[in-house]
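Our collaborator T.R. sent over the components below with a one-line note: 'Predict the complex.' Nothing else. No constraints on interfaces, no templates requested, no preferences about which chain binds where. So this is a plain run: every listed entity goes in together, and whatever single assembly comes back becomes the starting point for the next discussion.
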Amino acid sequence: MRISSFFYTIGQGIKNLGRNKWYTLASIATIGACLFLFGLFYSIITNFEYIVKTAEEGVSVTVFFNEGVSEEQMLAVKSDLEKRTEVKEIVYVSADDAWEEFKGEYLGEYSDGFTENPLADSANLQIYLNDVSMQPALVTYAESIDVVRKVNRSEVTADTLSGLNKLMAYVSAGIIIILLLVSIFLISNTVTMGIAVRKDEINIMKYIGATDFFVRAPFVVEGIIIGIIGSLIPLVIIYYIYRSAITYVATKFTMLSSLLNFLPVDKIYSNLIPISLAIGIGIGFFGSFITVRRHLHV
Amino acid sequence: MEKGFRKKKSGRQIPEDEVITLEHVTKSYSSGAPALKDVSLHVKKGEFVFIVGDSGSGKSTLIKLLLRELVPTSGEITVLGYNLNRIKHSRIPKFRRKLGIVFQDFRLLKDRNVYENVAFAQRIVQTPTREIKRNVPSILATVNLAGKYKNKINQLSGGEQQRVALARALINKPTILLADEPTGNLDPNNSWEIMNLMEKINENGTTVIVVTHNREIVNAMKKRVITMKKGVIIEDEEEGTYIDED
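Returned assembly:
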């Protein structure tokens, strides 16, 4: 392709936006609406995931040992457990650490009367998990170790969190399917409108002897530009909505804000920008590609 | 192979000066009687041919076949050495660039001005911008539209629009000019202006095929006239006239 033809193609793609103003606006609005919904749900789901993950990280399994088990044996169990995939981190709490912690939390100055450590047998391992749904497997394994006396766990919390995780997966899948169906419907309508607008123009080009590439290229350039604009608009809108929502919750519901940790906007946008742009450009590219293809066999 | 003939896989050899060859061409659509029935036709380089006939006589189908918009149901079509039965989709643009096409409804890009409509045909064949800037004013002068190159299409009369379409058809110096009812939407004065331009183009060596209903023009110009009726050629005569159907 000659350089002049290349720039002509780009120029025609840009000019096409102005030539078919209503089509351009309808396309941008369609892509924008789809990506706005997508961005909104993406922000909600990502935050929900983040909140659940933060809660999960606080859930631990505590392993206590039989009387007389040495510290070496306990550390050997610790390194054995650390090899398991579900384990994220293990903290060894010696009997002295446990007593110090207890004193600090509950007794304070009243602990002076104790000459011996009443928690001599309470050395333990605090195990943090990668995925809270794996807790039962780990507990079963830990209970089978002969030096282990007792395994404490928070079953209710673990069940609730893993239930929430499952629910979230279903909700995400459902929303994505609904969004996909709505997008396909809206985009196919826009493409049909585009075909009506473009039919004559494409026919004329073909009669004059334009190659498929030459016919297609300006429309594809146009589609990509529409895709970029259509994805940038909802990104800007969601950015301001998100920031305002976080600020609103933080100021109006101070109780909630200590419980719920929202992701900062830049964390959301580091993924949302490339995903939205890719979807927008993809829709623009394939939408225009399909629109033109239907008329190329003239 | 004899000198002065084109190679052909089957049937008669095509003389080198023959630009359009139809051999026993039939075109049927999915429903109804065939639009063309066993049509054979030979047009030499530099000829001026009128194709006349009532609606439904098969004229438009013939033009579509020559443009390779349609493929014949049976028979063989060769235009400028391209076998249109076997031509690959990717080669059709190159073939069409050797044709100039004019339609009754002009088929101009209404959102572009006169210059851009004509230049468009040169963009398609990737003519350098410098040459386009030289060629477009020259061809617009030939069709007497030099002063209107900036006008939008909807600012032009029907006759002027057809002259823009003619300029677009001619700018790439086609070997054959196909015109489908070029005067169908024009008044007598504009019709004659278009036909005179076509005659001038023909005198410069371009083969011209005109499908028309215009009896007065056909009878006055004394060119070859092919008359069609119900999908068959019923008359083909040099310096012919428009035959009344009744």
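Summary for T.R.: Chain A has two domains: 3-55+161-293, 60-153.
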